Amino acid sequence: MNQMISIALGGAIGALLRFFVSSGVYQWLGRELPYGTLAVNVIGSFLIGLMSEALLTQAGGSLTISYRAAVLVGLFGSFTTFSTFSLETVYLIEQGYLLRAAINVLVSIGICLPAAWAGLLSGRTLFFYSGGTIRWLGWVFPYGIVAVNFLGAFLLGIFVQLLVYRVSMSMEYRAAILVVLVGMFATFSGLYLIFYLLEEGYAFNQDLPRLLAVFFGNGFVCIVAVWIGLLAAKQL
């Protein structure tokens, strides 16, 4: 039951993100080709490859297993969309845009598969040494998960800069979107770190200062990564 609830929550978030990303891409690039669907499928392919390595290389208890189900099945299952890709391709064929339909198919396959492969390689590289964890004098530092969180926050910053700030909307709405997205990412990524440490032997009552330090430290890392992503996207 816990996994079903987790998948449902992850699916709700993924569906909203897909709507927001695809709508922003369509407003930015137009609808001559299904750019929005292509964007979410490419981004989702890379991230699911990366996150599958980040989340599945480490054994965990019920908390982390439910979290993994929420991310890999719920979030990315609803964020990416093969059915919409298929429908939009059929629509292009029916409207006589055979070249556009062929381009959509070739580009989607030609980019999504390498993106998933690149995500897997990135994850395997990060978790190659001791499963992405450093253990020293009783301390456990999951540097691999922190690195994945940094990368995700960096990509989030690029996404916000490229889409939100190039789509016509008020500054208040842009600020609200940025705060909500960054807050959600920092919160959920920090919670996974806490779940991981609890299942590594940390006790909530005895090690609360350490757990809070990890949680807020992860939040700081995410904010810095988003800021770097915002600056990097300005150069594009």
Strand content: under 5%
Trace the largest sheet across and list its strands.
1-2
Distance between the termini: 45 Å
**Helix/strand/pairing category:** mainly alpha
Largest sheet: 2 strands, antiparallel
Counted up, domains total 2
Mean pLDDT: 84
Word description of this protein:
The protein has helices at 2-29, 35-56, 62-79, 82-94, 98-126, 143-164, 171-199, 208-234; strands at residues 134-136, 139-141. It is mainly α and 236 residues long. The termini are far apart. The radius of gyration is 19 Å and the shape is globular. The protein is 80% helix and 3% strand. β1 (134-136) and β2 (139-141) form a beta hairpin. It contains eight helices and two strands, in the order αααααββααα. It has a two-stranded antiparallel ribbon. It folds into two domains: 1-120, no CATH class; 128-231, no CATH class. The mean pLDDT is 84. The longest helix has 29 residues, at 98-126. α1 (2-29) packs antiparallel against α2 (35-56), α1 runs parallel beside α3 and α6 packs parallel to α8 (208-234).
